[in-house]
Write a structure and sequence with these properties.
The complex is a heterodimer of chains A (143) and B (227). Chain A is of the alpha+beta class and 143 residues long. In chain A, 35% of the residues lie in helices and 20% in strands. In chain A, α2 crosses α3 and α4 packs antiparallel against α5. The longest helix of chain A is centred in the middle third of the chain and has 13 residues. Chain B is mainly β. In chain B, 8% of the residues lie in helices and 26% in strands. In chain B, 52% of the residues are buried. Classes of the chains: A alpha+beta (143), B mainly beta (227).
Chain lengths: 143, 227
Amino acid sequence: VRTFAIIEDGIVANVILADAWPNGIDVTDLTPRPGPGWSYDSETFSPPAPVEPVVQTTTRMTHLGFLSRMTADEWGRFEAFLASSVEARFAKALFDAARDVDTARPDVQQFANVLRMVGVLESDSRVADLLAPIPADSVHALP
Amino acid sequence: MPTSLRSIIGAPRHQRFLLTTSNAALPVPSWAQGGKGALYVSGCGGGGGRGGGNGGFGGSGAFAVDHPVVIPSGVITVSAVVGAAGAAAPDADSSGGNGGSTSVTLGGVLALNLGGGVGGQPTSNGGSGGAGGTPSVYGTVPTFTSNVINGAQASVTNVYAAHAEYLRSSRVMNTLSYGVSGLGGGITSNTGGACFTPFGGANGGYGSSGSPAGRQGVLILTFVEGL
């Protein structure tokens, strides 16, 4: 049994096992052995370009993971804001009571936007930082 | 007592082939020609190889169990292709090879394609597992397939829930089994994509510089006489 590469438009479309195959190129003895996706220029085989790593992320995280995104200055302004507003303290109480923080939830996004409006967060990019997904392999990420 | 029809005409004839290599012109039995027969296809694509440097595992080839194909009138041979195993990564920084696709073509029409599993990435490039192979039926990919790049996210439950959903949705043949995607190789667990036979799976094991290859595909073709 031999291994044949089936070429379509200069690309290895398939690699099959057969005793013989019409228009197939015998790659049994090639090392490394070409596979689907390799290119072929009528003489040599070339591997495909490396695939960029895919970083898995999630929007669910622990409270610590969320709050640790704030700087000390932002936290100081946040405490001042809490002292000045019963609505803010109520929102913070709900936040503390939540099982986790999901930055995809509208109420969490609204919370961050309010922090921007009252000056706790000083730029829109800081809002984006606060709401950004977290890498799935972070210790603060939740399934 | 009434006489059963089967006692008069007999049972439909069957002929089964187990193919571990391809056959460009497998003869259709005469009694299944002329629009009088069906072909039931079981098998899988080749499994992907593991990424180098103890990288991600390859995905399994897509598989099918007794997938029915009507044999059109005039078709006297079947082109049966068996996908090869995904090659081992040649060095620590290379990905494992993709598995070859296993397929059945009748009268020039690709009736069923069982894609090979994708090779895993090397540790130096993130070490993600390869995606499971994708099946297609007359060129259409079933919507229930799950094809997850990172094996850590490739859930057996998700794949089989989707499979079961499809089976429940079939009014006519609710026992029909289409090929479904293999599972992505594991990045955090030392397991390759799931496989149910010695064929089509991603291979396990370790290699500090290279990696193990996947496993080849297979085809089990059963011609059945139509009465």
